[in-house]
Amino acid sequence: MNKEPTGHARAQTRVRFVLAAVCSAAFVIFLVLLHRAAAQHPLQPLVDVRFSMLGVGINFALSLGSVLAFGYWRRRQRARRSLGA
Amino acid sequence: MQSPVAVALFVIVILVTLVITRWAARRTHSRAEFYAAGSSITGTQNGLAIAGDFMSASTILGVAGLVFVGNSDAVLYITAPLVGFTVVLLFIAEPLRNLGRYTVAEVVALRFPGRSVRAFTAAASLVVTIFYLIAQMVGAGALIEVLLGVPYSLAVAIVATLMMLYVAFGGMLATTWVQITKAVVLVIGVLLMTALTFAYVGYDFGTLYSVARAQAGTVFSGNTTGALNSLYSTLSLGLALSLGVAGLPHILIRFFTVPDARQARRSIVVAMVLIAVVFLLVLFVLSYAAIAFLYGRPEFFDDAGVMRGGANMAVIHLSRFLGGDALLGIVSAVVFATILAVVAGLTMASAGALAHDLYAQVMRRGSVDEKQELRVFRYSTVAVTIVAVLLGIAFKGKNISFLVSLAFTVAASANFPVLLLALYWRGLTKRGALTGGAAGLISSTGLLIAGPAIWIDILGNDQPLFASNYPTLIALPLAFVTCWAVSLLDARRKDAEALRVFEALELKALGAGD
What is B1-45 written as a DSSP string? Predict the structure, then answer.
């Protein structure tokens, strides 16, 4: 059986997990910071708009960025394979 | 609150959606067309439909309501789903599209042929969609009662009848176009209100926030309780709201409507951007505008100083403040369209699980013709509608947030682990999937029932058996660990045939050659 497609699938899975881990880590850090802000004062996350905007913005940018990065990585892999073929 | 413009626009929304249903019904005949719109939806259209399916009225109005009463959990409710959609794109969307045709249980059943895993996944999907549906019906009844002055039960019945018509006659095609219409009008409505807000404050962000901050300082007590009060609850709710997205059947079945994995990926990117735009504008502009503009105006509050219709009506009142009865009518109609789109998606997922998984595959073991299955699909739609109306009326006035959190918690704890491991872990066995899924389902629902929201507020006990309303941080790891442990102990782990099935599915699911 040709092992090459299986290797590609496994490599893809590894990249998926790495990207998800980066996003999840950023999200968990934001959750901890959010809890800390609320522990200072329950209204802090709402009153400090810049903090909330930055947190939500970074998380969204990372999420969208990882999705686009994955697409880019796949395109490059495909191009490399077609050159090698 | 009844405005002639609102009534007229409600009627227009109903007429437009019924025209869509009639158009779709003429094009919907086969099983593939009923369940998946014949996989003829483009990625962009599906992205709009996913956004329409996901952004419920309770989320949008609820987030503004939370901010209005000074509950910082609103920030969490906005951020978590955006992260959740990344998980959907990276792990779920593509394999679902490549492997499945109509339902989520079907994909899990490809890995573990037979009836048990399919029946469990379909049942867990039903639990999630029914709880989500009850929450939407309760919210819809209360909202329409306030907006149109229609009695609660009648409002619930109107919404239920419309959703039954869309799904039973137009199937997934009608549901998709109702959701696309809703997404478009919602984005337009939110952009219009944002533009009017900025025009009101002279296009100065600083003015809006400084006025809101000044108001908040004087009106908030500063001790509103929420999940952010404890680190456990913060992490648990964050986990439920993010990973729950990856286990919501009404979102996942949308990937069967596109022709290939590329369009499935595009769907998610379009949906993420649209959801982010709407959520961010609602959280950071409209919620603060409601605080800045509405406080101190007696027309929006009763004699006791409580907002008319409750804090969840903040965005609705803001629309009247910004644009009078005309804008109130437009925003009310947008909210109505939002409700219809979400309940249609939920009904589609529930009826599909009943007719395709439980009836055709589990009860009849696949020996059922297309015509018969579609007849059962229509009966299932009627049954789901009746259940939704009865439960919607029974739960009138109840705190709906626990129902929504129950849906997300069960989706994250029972559906997501089984789906993820079935797609990516070769060591998972049928026994492991069943016991792990059951552990997630039982622990999440059990701990929710034992928590304060149900054990004290609904069942009337003095002390909760479980101190938190957010059990995902316990139930989700428990599901994963049970899947892992039972699979390791299972002698069938090294079964050559099972490993061959996994490898074949792995290649097909991830489209490695793509």
Answer: ---HHHHHHHHHHHHHHHHHHHHHHHH--SHHHHHHGGG---HHH
Nearest CA in chain A to B75: A52
Chain B residue numbers touching A43 (CB-CB < 8 A):
70, 72, 216, 220, 222, 224
Residue ranges of E strands in B300-342: none
pLDDT in tens, chain B (514 residues): 567 888 888 889 899 999 999 999 999 888 899 999 999 999 999 999 999 999 987 778 888 888 888 888 899 999 999 999 999 999 999 999 999 888 999 899 999 988 999 999 999 999 999 989 988 898 888 888 877 888 999 999 999 999 999 999 999 999 999 999 999 999 999 999 999 999 998 888 888 888 888 877 655 655 556 888 899 999 999 999 999 999 999 999 999 999 998 899 999 999 999 999 999 999 999 999 999 999 888 888 888 888 888 888 899 999 999 999 889 888 888 888 888 889 999 999 999 999 999 999 999 988 888 899 999 999 999 999 999 999 999 888 776 666 787 899 999 999 999 999 999 998 999 999 999 999 999 999 999 999 988 899 888 899 999 999 899 999 999 999 999 999 999 877 777 888 888 888 888 887 754 4
- Residues of chain A in contact with residue B98, where contact means CB-CB under 8 angstroms, are none
Contact B41, B363 (CB under 8 A): no
Q: Which of B234, B272, B510 lies closest to A64 in CB terms?
A: B272
Is A43 an 8 Å CB contact of chain B? yes
What pTM value is reported for the model? 0.92
Inter-chain touch B506–A9, beta carbons under 8 Å: yes
Write out chain B residues lying below 8 Å of A21, CB-based: none
Helices (H), B255-313: 261-281, 287-294
Q: Show residues of chain B in contact with A13, CB under 8 Å.
A: 424, 510
Token pair 């439920």 is found at: B240
Whether B46 and B254 have beta carbons less than 8 Å apart is answered as: yes
Interface ipTM: 0.91
